[in-house]
Amino acid sequence: MKLTSDQLDGFLLRVLVAVAEEESVSRAAAKLNLPQSTVSAGLTRLRTIFNDPLFVRGRNSMVPTARMAELYGRIRSVAADLEGLCVPEATPAPADINREFHIGTLDYISPRFIPDIIARLLQKMPRASIQVHALSLDFDYQESLETGALDLMVGNWGSPPEHLHLYPLFEDEIICLARQSNPVLKGGFSQADYLAADHLGLFPVNANQLGVIDAYLAQMGLRRNVKVVLPYFNNVPNLLVQSDLIFTTCKRFAGEYSKDLPLQIIPSPISFPAMRFYLLWHDRTHRSPACREMRECVVDAIARSDT
Q1: Phi and psi of 240, rounded to 5°?
Q2: Do the domains at 4-85 and 94-171+276-304 have one common CATH topology?
Q3: Which pLDDT belongs to residue 105?
Q4: Nearest alpha carbon to residue 117 among 300, 306, 307
Q5: Mean pLDDT per 10-residue run, the chain (307 residues)?
Q6: pLDDT, position 159
């Protein structure tokens, strides 16, 4: 059903306010930088919409009717609100950003990855707050980005969704990590040894897809023996120290733990492609000044990191 209010628009409201303030069609036209005929036509339409003359002739100017006098304050407020809606969003200074950011990631790069990002964000935006969301099989990160439950994702999937914005962070070599006394490593570590060994795996982020390592092996027609599957990376090092399991991962993650634990990094006997890490975000936050600043902070934190 078409309403009377459907005939109103921002232009007509501006005409009405200008005529009311100038008390003259000609002066209102000059103020709006419009032909007088355009303002007169607009006023005619307004009189029909409100079913009231709105202005009548006085001795030296146009005089508002009682109806117009009653409406003027509300109309002026609506016109100002409409104009305000079209003003470009101001870009706040980073120190003035007071917003809660939501970042989805895994602890798969290094123990310092998340702390480095948070430290940089708080340094640049001290009034902001941050929530880091761990990914799991039942976590729909695409829906979370679309609804705003997440502002940003750190990912390393082989084929990220095409509808999301992507910014490449870095690539990392894939190696194997095992305890130093692991008998599997005696006498070398061949492809046959790799496939015959017992492996430690992680739940893939997407329940319907293989992880990066197993997906690549499947493309080659190969399959490893994943004996143990964990939900989190932070349990990996201590389990490796106490078992003969092999863990295939990126070099940055392995390097942190091999410094302090009896673990060794072994070149992978299978030439896996480098693991690509990147940021993902939805178009809903793409133009947000605060979210843009947040993404720049994340990129900067990773660039500064020596992990």
Answers
A1: -65, -40
A2: no
A3: 83
A4: 300
A5: 64 90 91 92 91 88 90 88 74 89 77 84 94 77 92 82 90 92 88 94 62 88 92 85 93 82 94 90 93 92 71
A6: 74
- Say how far apart CA 167 and CA 117 lie, in whole Å: 16
pLDDT number for residue 135: 73
Measuring CA to CA, how many Å separate 31 from each of 25, 39, 56, 199?
10, 11, 20, 78
CATH of segment(s) 174-273: 3.40.190.10
* Spatial separation of the C-alpha atoms in residues 131 and 33, rounded to whole Å: 51
> Is 220 buried (19+), middle (13-18) or exposed (0-12) by CB count in 10 A?
exposed
Question: Could you tell me the CATH superfamily of domain 94-171+276-304?
Answer: Periplasmic binding protein-like II (3.40.190.10)
201 forms bridges with which residues in the sheet?
A: 229
- pLDDT score for 40: 92
Instruction: Sketch the domain layout of the chain as residue ranges.
Output: 4-85, 94-171+276-304, 174-273
Tokens of 50: 């409100």
DSSP string for 260-298: TSSEEEEE-SS-PPPEEEEEEE-GGGTT-HHHHHHHHHH
User: According to the model, what pLDDT value does residue 204 have?
Assistant: 65
Residue 277 is predicted with a pLDDT of: 87
DSSP summary character for residue 66: H
C-alpha distances out from residue 84 to 11, 20, 233, 258, Å: 14, 20, 49, 58
Q: Name the residue among 253, 4, 225 with its Cα closest to residue 105.
A: 253
DSSP 241-253: HTS--EEEEEHHH
pLDDT of residue 262: 93
127 CB-near residues (< 8 Å, 6+ apart): 95, 96, 97, 98
Q: Give the domain 4-85 fold.
A: Arc Repressor Mutant, subunit A (1.10.10)
Residues 241, 193: contact at Cβ < 8 Å? no
